[in-house]
Specification:
The structure holds 3 protein chains of 3 kinds. Helix content of chain A is 77%, strand content 1%. By secondary structure, chain A is an all-alpha fold. Chain B starts with a helix and ends with a helix. By secondary structure, chain B is mostly helical. The chains are: A mainly alpha, B mainly alpha, C alpha/beta. Chains in contact: A-B, A-C, B-C. Chains A and B meet through α4, α7, α8, α9 and α10 of A and α1, α6, α7, α8 and α9 of B.
Chain lengths: 419, 388, 286
């Protein structure tokens, strides 16, 4: 509470000093101008400069102090730090006032400060990427200090708790503290569900895009595109519920009808629902790409006596292919990292199988499971979540980059080809 | 040259037939996607709408001596099993707060328990035939009925399905979104301003651009890992709080706002900038007084869409602990809270049948808010759309 | 405007002359009745929405000749050209009246399959538009679809033939598997011509085929047109009057959606019969 009051007091003082700076600066500049001296900037601009000179350094000092305390654990008493900042603010005010001279470019100084503030904002996005990378790599390295990387990549048994293994009399099978972290079954499950999702999303999405861009009258098109995009706007947790409560029982019934045995946590339900979710990603991007194929291509083909569908199949789609592949890669990357649908509808049991009707688990499910239990943060299972996250990050990052490169090539190609 | 129209037409017949197939198949695909959407909404409405009704029982309350200790004693023992235990627990407190009640009786509609509720709605329940017959008799005499479920909108979470409500999650969502917007909007707009209006075309700028596009495609759960490792473990932001949730979502929303703002800035024609430069404005004055006001509608639209996206996000919030059980509605940025999608996730995990409809009801509330937000964005865009 | 009628006795009349005069249509003449008729156009009018783009055209196109369409931009030459293989069907809001007759059939009739028409009336466009396929496939694709060739050897023979006809064979024979887009602009345009002649059409429409090309490529294509007219009827739109004078046997002058004058090229350029054509040719407007 005391800290809060101190901070309030500090903010109030800085605000007050800023106001003082504004009015003093403006008054002085106005006075100088009234004397008939030509000045480089308006009085208001001098006033704002004085405010920046007062508050800027003070905020920087206090922020640096706070950061030092956090990072290096330096013990700087808060009142002392804030007081120091206020002193800096007062000095800044004085220096700022001295700068209110006719030959000072206040406007350019303000522009420079604004520019640096904007650069700082732009850096946040880079920091975010680094933040993700560092937070994952740091913990993942700690995990790989306990468990071998090779074992993690090639192992086919994922059983983080050694208790049930030992209970089953198989404690000797596991390595490294009794638990074994072989991620192959998790990735197999992830790829299985992603594959099913793509089987649904790519044909439906691509064909919908073909219909919208080549066949549909414009009234249908203007209605269909936003309607399809509703599918992408539905929260994933809602899809997860839909998959678990509606689709999974249907799959079990259908499988039972044709004499197959399906688990309620089968891979088909989350796969299909994820596919539905991804349809608009594919259709939207493909639609844009197909529309950007120059019309002269279509006319060239039609003028040779090709039917419309032959033109689409043999000329338009091949021309749009890089863009379509790029869209599909983005979709795959999205499916790999999708969490809620699989958490709610897929199984928890790592299961290395080729049968999509069995229950299986995925990378993201295990990450959630590892981080939501009552485990301490230092445990191997918690750390394993970061190792899985690292692999997920690497795969999705590569897919995204390849996708971006392909779409750039597509654009460049048609800019050149259109002469 | 030896081909007459008739020869060619004959050869074309088969090709035309094949060609028509693509049209029908592609039309069918679009139809299928539409059908999915329709089925989905039908299913959610079917499951969720009953949640907005709740069974109530009319009981005669005898505020007698025994009821001071055990609420159940105040009610007819025939009807008491139908009443929600959450209400029974309230009776002794009511007498304590208002001693005048002692010795009086009153007729009142009170919450029924979830089994009665599920039976009345024709869902699966554990009542035996005798109990069902008793309820039927009470329905006929007008003592048990389904009424609009105000509890759902005025209560926080509860382990008893009939008392569980969405309010604490709504409040949590609002708090979290405030944090998200407060961080993502200024930073996003400033980044876009820098990239569009100030940045030189150099390596660093390209790096930032690629990075933003990439950030938009990183799985959301990885943002959760960042929130956990950096915000919570490193900076010590309180776990499960709207503050940490909002900060995590802000980083996810950032690319959406940046990309939308850049598009909006780009659509402001250069002639306006040139005109402003021409009368002696500095770069910042041009941006502040001329470009930004014209781009504002586009920026608002993009931000609303980003907000709607963040509002439906669950995975990173689970990682930073925002799946807490929050029975009381509290307005604090640093205390544990839950948000709507996380509440839906929690309810979906409850084994009781009655929670299925709560989940779907929560989903309907969330979807309504999202549809409202997106519609606002569309209207904004339509209203301020300008062709240069 | 009709004062020139008296002067045109030197050239033979087209059969529709009288009807053209009744409707107030400026004279279109049949410069050489000795050639076989390829396409007969009668009273052709076309609207884009409410704008009339072609106004009551009457013209006969003769086989195995080059017919050039000239006139200022926006005069309807390209629109007219696209009526001949019904490419205007692709533009929404186009309405058409009148007769375009080929081989004794009305090409706009409901029974006429526009795909079959385009198979017989090929087209080369303003900008080269090779398909995103190899050079070989660019040429072989359409004949294969039309069942003109099937076996690999037949295809190779046809591709070589078409590329030789288009004067491109020597330049590309060693890189048939490279993408068509890897060629230079002039080569791409000749590839498009090879593509068009590979399906053995009767008529080839050329819509300003050299406007995007350098002078040397233009000369090559002009030579090519001269060679190709032995087998095909060629109708070309051009902005370049010297080009029309060099390559065309007949020239039609378009102005504001009407054909002002249609004559053999020598007469048209040496002694135009209408004032408007003369003004255009002498560069008074255009």
């Amino acid at each position: 509470m005391q800290t809060n009051q101190l901070i309030a007091l500090f903010s109030g003082s800085v605000l007050l000093l800023g106001l003082v700076a504004f009015f003093l600066g403006r008054a002085k500049a106005a006075r100088v101008r009234a004397e008939g001296t030509a000045m480089f900037a308006q009085p208001d601009q001098y006033a704002w400069f004085a405010v920046l000179a007062t508050a800027g350094p003070a905020l920087v000092v206090s922020a640096a102090g706070a950061f030092l305390m956090l990072l290096l654990g330096a013990e700087i008493p808060t009142p002392f730090l804030l007081a120091a900042s206020l002193v800096v603010a007062a000095v800044g005010l004085m220096l700022g006032m001295m700068q209110v001279r006719p030959d000072f470019h206040a406007r350019q100084a303000i522009e420079r400060v604004i520019r640096w503030v904007l650069v700082g904002a732009a850096m946040i996005s880079i920091l975010t990427t680094f933040g993700i990378l560092i937070s994952i790599v740091f913990e993942a390295v700690r995990f790989f200090q306990i468990h071998s990387f090779w074992e993690f990549i090639t192992g086919t048994v994922w059983s983080p708790g050694d208790s049930f293994l030992a209970a089953a009399g198989r404690g000797d099978e596991s390595s490294g503290g009794g638990a074994s972290f072989g991620s192959v079954p998790l990735f197999a499950g992830t790829f299985m569900i992603t594959g099913i999702a793509m089987l649904v999303a790519i044909p439906i999405g691509l064909l919908s895009a073909i219909y919208m861009s080549e066949f549909a009258p414009s009234s249908v098109r203007t209605l269909a595109k936003p309607t399809l995009e509703v599918l992408a706007g539905i929260p994933t947790v809602v899809y997860g519920f839909f998959a678990a409560i509606t689709v999974a029982p249907i799959i079990v019934d259908v499988a039972g009808f044709i004499g197959l045995d399906a688990s309620y946590n089968n891979a088909v339900a989350p796969g299909v629902v994820m596919g539905i979710m991804i349809i608009p990603f594919i259709s939207s991007l493909s639609d844009d790409v197909i529309n950007s194929v120059p019309d002269s291509m279509r006319q060239g083909s039609l003028a040779l006596g090709m039917t419309k569908s032959e033109t689409i199949r043999d000329v338009v789609i091949p021309a749009a292919l890089p863009g379509i592949i790029s869209a599909s890669l983005l979709a795959v990357s999205r499916a790999l990292g999708e969490t809620m649908i699989v958490v709610m509808a897929a199984g928890m049991r790592p299961n290395l199988t080729a049968n999509p009707l069995e229950d299986m688990t995925t990378v993201t499910v295990r990450i959630v499971a590892a981080l939501t239990g009552d485990l301490e943060f230092e445990s191997a299972e918690t750390l394993s979540a970061f190792a899985l996250g690292l692999v997920l990050f690497t795969i999705t990052l590569s897919l995204n980059l390849v996708s971006v490169i392909m779409i750039r090539r597509f654009r460049d190609k048609y800019r050149v080809n259109n002469l | 040259m030896s081909h007459s129209f008739d020869d060619i037409s004959a050869q074309l017949k088969g090709r035309h037939r094949k060609s028509a197939r693509l049209k029908w198949i592609s039309m069918g695909s679009l139809g299928l996607a539409g059908l999915f959407l329709l089925l989905f909404f039908a299913d959610m409405l079917n499951r969720g709408l009953p949640a907005f009704q709740q069974a109530y029982v009319q009981v005669e309350l005898n505020y007698n001596e025994d009821a001071q200790r055990m609420g159940r004693a105040a009610m007819d023992p025939e009807i008491a099993p139908l009443v929600s235990r959450s209400f029974e627990r309230l009776i002794p407190g009511m007498i304590r707060d208002n001693p005048d009640l002692l010795g009086t009786t009153e007729q009142r509609w009170v919450l029924a328990n979830s089994e009665v509720d599920q039976y009345l709605k024709g869902h699966r329940n554990s009542l035996n035939e005798a109990e069902q017959a008793a309820i039927e008799a009470l329905v006929d005499s007008g003592q048990v009925a389904l009424k609009f479920n105000t509890t759902f909108f005025t209560n926080g979470d509860s382990k008893m399905a009939e008392r569980a409500g969405i309010l604490s999650a709504v409040v949590g969502t609002v708090l979290t979104m405030l944090v998200t917007l407060a961080i993502a909007f200024p930073i996003g707009v400033m980044t876009a301003l820098y990239l569009e209006e100030f940045a030189p075309d150099n390596r660093l700028t390209q790096l930032i651009e690629i990075n933003i596009n990439n950030l938009a495609a990183i799985p959301s759960i990885l943002f959760g890992l960042l929130g956990l490792a950096i915000f919570i473990n490193f900076f010590g932001v309180p776990r499960s709080s709207p503050l940490v949730g909002g900060m995590t979502l802000a980083l996810m929303t950032l690319p959406v706002i940046i990309i939308a703002t850049r598009t909006a800035l780009r659509s402001v024609p250069d002639s306006i900038r040139h005109a402003a430069f021409g009368v002696g404005c500095s770069r910042w004055q041009v941006v502040r007084d001329h470009v930004l006001p014209l781009a504002m509608p586009g920026i608002m639209t993009g931000s609303i869409i980003g907000l709607a996206q963040a509002m439906g996000e669950t995975a990173p919030l689970i990682i930073v602990g925002m799946v807490a059980f929050i029975p009381d509605v509290g307005v604090s940025f640093t205390n544990a809270a839950t948000v709507m999608p996380a509440q839906i996730f929690t309810w979906a995990g409850e084994p009781e049948q009655a929670f299925v409809e709560k989940t779907a009801g929560g989903i309907l509330v969330l979807l309504s808010i999202l549809i409202f937000l997106n519609a606002t964005a569309v209207i904004l865009r339509k209203k301020f759309e300008r062709r240069w | 405007m009709n004062m020139h009628i008296a002067e045109r006795s030197s050239a033979p009349m087209s059969p529709q002359e009288s009807s053209g005069q009744e409707t107030g249509q400026p004279v279109t003449r049949n410069p050489n009745a000795g050639h076989d008729l390829s396409i007969r156009i009668r009273d052709l009018s076309l609207w884009y929405g409410n704008t009339k783009a072609l106004d009551n055209l009457n013209i006969d196109i003769y086989q195995k000749n080059v017919t050039a369409l000239i006139g200022p931009s926006g005069c309807g030459k390209s629109t007219f050209l696209r009526c001949l293989n019904r490419m205007n069907d692709l533009i929404p809001g186009v309405r058409l009246e009148g007769l375009v007759e080929m081989d004794g059939r009305d090409v706009n009739a409901a029974k006429m399959d526009e795909v079959a028409l385009r198979r017989r009336v090929g087209m080369v466009f303003q900008k080269p538009n090779p398909f995103p396929k190899s050079i070989f496939e660019n040429v072989a694709y359409a004949p294969r679809m039309h069942d003109l060739v099937s076996r690999k050897a037949e295809q190779e023979e046809l591709v070589e033939h078409a590329l030789r006809e288009a004067g491109l064979w020597n330049e590309v024979k060693d890189k048939l598997q490279q993408p068509g887009t890897s060629l230079s602009g002039g080569q791409q345009q000749r590839l498009c011509i090879a593509r068009a002649i590979a399906v053995q059409p009767d008529v080839i429409l050329m819509d300003e085929p050299t406007s995007a090309l350098d002078p040397i490529s233009t000369a090559t294509i002009e030579d090519l047109m001269d060679k190709l007219k032995k087998q095909f009827t060629i109708i070309t739109v051009t902005h370049n009057m010297q080009q029309a004078a060099r390559v065309a046997d007949y020239t039609a002058f378009f102005h504001l959606g009407e054909i002002i004058e249609y004559n053999d090229t020598n007469t048209m350029f040496a002694n135009p019969h209408t004032k408007k054509a003369e003004d255009y040719i002498t560069g008074r407007y255009g």
